[in-house]
Amino acid sequence: MVFSANVFSTIVGNAVFDDVVYFAEDGTDSDLLLRYDIATGSTLSSFTLSEAPTAIAADDLGVYLAIGKSLYRYTFSGNTATATLLRNFAKEIKQIHPVSNYLLVVAGNPNQTVAVLERADGVFVEETEFLEDEFGIIGGIHYSPGSGNLIVNFAEAVDGTVFLTMSFDTSSGDLGAYTDSLVAAFSSPFYSEGANLIVGENGEVVEFNTTNVVDVSPVADSDSPLKALLSHEFFYSDGVIKFAFDDTDSMLVGSTIDNSCHGYDGGTTIRRLASGASGGVGFTATDIYDVNANIHTLVADGADYLMFSGESSALTMQRLDDLDDPEFFGSGDFTPLTVNFTPDQHLSAVSRDGDVLMMHIEATCDRHIVRWDMANQMYLSSVNMQLNKPVDVSYGAEENQFYSLSNVSEALYLRYVDFDVTPPVQSVMSGFSPHAGVGNQVVATDDHVVLSYNDEGEMLVVFNTDGTQAQAPFANTGAAWDVAVWDSNNDRVFYLSDSSLFSVVIAADGSFGVEVKSLDYGVTQEASTDSEIVLNGDGTLLMVGGVLYNAATLAKVDAIQTDANLATWLSTTVFALNEGDESDLEKSERNIGTDPHFGLPTSTELDGTNVLLFTMVQDGVSVPFTLNVDSSTNALIYRTHGTTSTTATSVTLGGNGSSGDGADSTDTTTTETTAEPIGGTGGGGIGLFTLLLLATGVSARRKYC
Q1: Residue 683 to residues 611, 651, 686: CA-CA distances in angstroms?
Q2: Which of 42, 483, 490, 563 has a 20 to 30 Å separation from 30 between CA atoms?
Q3: Integer CA distances (angstroms), 575 to 262, 446, 546, 586, 588, in order
Q4: Kind and range of the H or E element at 689?
Q5: Above pLDDT 90, what percent of the chain?
Q6: Closest C-alpha among 389, 388, 378 to residue 355
Q7: pLDDT of residue 655
Q8: pTM across the whole model
């Protein structure tokens, strides 16, 4: 494309006339009218304007261009343009809107008028004045043929409303009385006639009808329903909406990509949204397009669309049908030992068979559920979760599903991965994504999934495992859940708030029983939301921060000497872990005689910090298992711990270390040899067979369309 050279410029607006797209450009060096021929797919010569354009529009008579205070109509013959002056205004023209046989013109600053002109010759018909101190500053007007109303939007409203509607008689050109909408706040609007909706730059949605502009029950009960939808797990960005374009039975919405982890950061995501059956805002995203350009104009060309970016000589056109599949942020393939990540106990779980550790990890732009197979000493395929770091996760053993709760753009997302499906992929809990509010906790029970969140008050909602609601959202009469765990032995949830410990039984239908509150936690023990709640095998005792409680009454029973953040039970023995520059694993055995109590602990020093502690199954026996990843060397260190305080098995993969007992494969058909580690800078005796398994443990991939 060749246009007049002008590097620093601004597109004021665009219009289409006789299969040509016209762009009004307010440039630094010169002011231009740019042209692109849709029929031939080529650029035409541009025209230099005498002053900066302020508004542009078109109808079947020509292209209307506002230059300062003057309104012109341009007609064209080849590379010749003829400008006809229609009318001068006392103030600068802000917008031109052809309707039937008339032109509606917004002019003035600070006090503005909406003037009605005969479009054939610019003859004045009437005008309505809007005083700044009474109404504010007009952001734009829109005529709705379906309702017969003119909608006036105020960019700076002073009377508690940003929209008003006026009837407009297309036969006489008369403007009727106005009606306030009482919509209190709204960003730059885009109008969708097909769905009778107005979409805000920040994702707000309101509806217009035959009488007014009204608030609606938006998507996911959010003030920014489209922003929430556009921030779905398929794509996360802090960008803004640039346009909303009507299609036959859907709407195309474009938003800027503002995310350094996205392959097209600074570009545009375009989604085709199908409206709900009622014509309201129950949108479904059917197609997603990512563009490595900041699109400012979308023009229909039959069934396809032309997308324009850039300005002046850098103006560029792309076709929507030519776009490739969306470019999602984060790695499609993920090999854990080549990436620095820190494991998080709060975002990890053990599989129902007790032999696979699942960890949600975040490493720069990679967000995956990473799985370590104890039996085979290998990474299994990970799952790309794409969205930001979750606030909580929970694993449901009955369904073998890993649930993830995230907060994004004033909305929360509840997703899950079904590990009984091959390959495992992330999905959304139906009917609840996204939802307005801030998520606190997610707890998977045997039959349900419980979500604790805040939406102008503490709320709870209970799902069946198929995603349907077992109990609709209801007010939480207790305190916000900070840490929670499910007791499958007694069908109850234990949870911590910022001040106390609670339990509540959940019935088979998902309804809640009477809440039990501990009289000791937060009184005899200092309250903390950093501790995990750990149950013993039959659910009769629980450990919170090194203190033992009766599970039924939540009364304090005993304590170990360690103020442990992490702990795990093996029969009557507790293994507890404190984190610091060096982590010590302490083993405390409980006397079950007439005076049951914990004795002196024995200690094992572990390497590094950020250690995870779980009960895992090794050769059919439950053992304590610790794991950490050295973020400086990428070395993964895992240990299983036997019945004594000594380490039974210790293996280091990658980094500068060498492996201990148990590192080599036990497959007798494979010749063993020392292999270089994956990641790190040396060391690590890994069996060849194990190395091959590690190398093939890459992420499951999924194509979204």
Answers
A1: 21, 12, 9
A2: 42
A3: 42, 26, 10, 6, 6
A4: helix 688-695
A5: 40
A6: 378
A7: 54
A8: 0.73
- Residue showing tokens 């009437």: 126
Residue 431, pLDDT > 80, answer: no
Measure Cα distances from 126 to 37, 115, 132 in Å. Answer: 36, 6, 20
Determine contact, residues 680/655, Cβ cutoff 8 Å.
yes
| Three-class DSSP category at 312 | helix
Tell me the one-letter amino acid at 39. A
Please say whether the beta carbons of 366 and 334 come within 8 A. Answer: yes
The helix or strand, by DSSP H or E, that contains position 156, with its residue range, turns out to be strand 149-157
Radius of gyration (Cα) for the chain, nearest Å?
32
Mean pLDDT to the nearest integer, 341-345? 84
Q: What's the DSSP call for residue 700?
A: B
Question: Which residue, chain included where needed, has tokens 């990474």?
Answer: 379
Contact 163, 206 (CB under 8 A): yes
Phi, psi of 18 (to 5 degrees): 50, 45
Q: Output DSSP code: residue 313.
A: G
Do residues 640 and 651 touch, judged by C-beta distance below 8 A? no
In this prediction, residue 687 has a pLDDT band, given cuts at 50, 70 and 90, of very low
Nearest to 619, CA basis, from 432, 365, 355: 355
> Euclidean distance between the first and final Cα of the chain, in Å?
31
Query: In angstroms, rounded to a whole number, what is the distance separating the alpha carbons of residues 398 and 123?
Result: 76
Give, for 695, the enclosing helix (H) or strand (E): helix 688-695
Cβ atoms within 10 A of the Cβ of 606, count?
22
Q: Are 402 and 429 in contact (CB under 8 A)?
A: no
User: What does the block give as tokens for 126?
Assistant: 């009437």
Say which amino acid occupies 345: Q
Distances (CA, A) of 62 to 53, 82, 84, 142, 188: 16, 10, 10, 20, 27
Please provide the DSSP assignment of 205-271 as one string.
Answer: EEEE-SS-EEE---GGG-SSHHHHHHTSTT------EEEEEE-SSSEEEEEE---TTSTTTTSEEEE
Q: Specify the residue for token string 């709060």.
A: 346
**312, 30 contact by CB (below 8 A):** no
Placement of tokens 């409303």 in the chain = 161
Torsion sign, CA atoms 592, 597, 602, 607: positive
Residue 168's nearest CA partner among 120, 101, 228, 123 is: 101
In this structure, are residues 288 and 271 in contact, taking their beta carbons and an 8 Å threshold?
yes
The per-residue b/e assignment along 289-318, b for 16 or more CB within 10 angstroms, e otherwise, is bbbbbbbbbbbebeeebbbbbbbbbebebb
Higher pLDDT, 409 or 503: 503
Task: With beta carbons less than 8 A apart as the criterion, state whether 654 and 684 touch.
Answer: yes
How far CA 705 is from CA of 206, 288, 365, 412, in Å, comes to 28, 6, 21, 23
Q: Distance (Å, rounded) from C-alpha 9 to C-alpha 48?
A: 13
pLDDT of residue 659 exceeding 60, the answer is no
Q: Which string of DSSP letters, residue by residue, matches 328-384?
A: -SS-SS--GGGS-----GGGEEE-TTS-EEEEEEEETTEEEEEEEETTTTEEEEEEE
Give DSSP secondary structure letters for 516-533: EE-SSBTTTB---SSSPE
CA distance 293 to 296: 9
Judge contact between 216 and 207, C-beta under 8 A.
Answer: yes
- Give the 3-state DSSP-derived string for 404-438, with helices as H, strands as E and coil as C: EEEEECCEEEEEEEECCCCCCCEEECCCCCCEECE
